[in-house]
Amino acid sequence: MSSKNLDTLYRQVIMDHYKNPRNKGVLEDDSLTINMNNPTCGDRIQLTLKLEDGKVADAKFEGEGCSISMSSASMMTQAIKGKNIEEALKLSKVFSDMMLGKEYDEDDLDLGDIEALQGVSQFPARIKCATLAWKAMEKGVSTEKEEQE
């Protein structure tokens, strides 16, 4: 597939997650709530996580922002559901490396739709948009891990 066709496909995936976000909403009950924003562009997210037995049982988000930040949140919630906390954090590390243009080990991880955000690494001002939801997840699961230790 040519790079132009790949870019078009990736843009379509990003816009699909933006227009039809997965896991949009708020979890109730004993869920963990993390609020974060990006003051430089106005993106904001409220991420709610249900963590059970060291796993991400469910994840939802609410927020406002550009197509990159909201589609990234949609993709991230899909990717981490059902994963144990260590796997979710590893996925976040791989995503961060991808955003920074670093080499990352993709052999044992299926990034799925997340790969569509790979081109964001070429636009440094947009990296914070793409990583906002991931930083919220890291903050939430790290806080939970510390409380359990």
Automatic annotation (TrEMBL):
<feature type="domain" description="NIF system FeS cluster assembly NifU N-terminal">
    <location>
        <begin position="10"/>
        <end position="129"/>
    </location>
</feature>
<dbReference type="InterPro" id="IPR002871">
    <property type="entry name" value="NIF_FeS_clus_asmbl_NifU_N"/>
</dbReference>
<dbReference type="Pfam" id="PF01592">
    <property type="entry name" value="NifU_N"/>
</dbReference>
<dbReference type="GO" id="GO:0005506">
    <property type="term" value="F:iron ion binding"/>
</dbReference>
<dbReference type="GO" id="GO:0016226">
    <property type="term" value="P:iron-sulfur cluster assembly"/>
</dbReference>
<dbReference type="GO" id="GO:0051536">
    <property type="term" value="F:iron-sulfur cluster binding"/>
</dbReference>
<comment type="similarity">
    <text>Belongs to the NifU family.</text>
</comment>
<protein>
    <submittedName>
        <fullName>Nitrogen fixation protein NifU</fullName>
    </submittedName>
</protein>
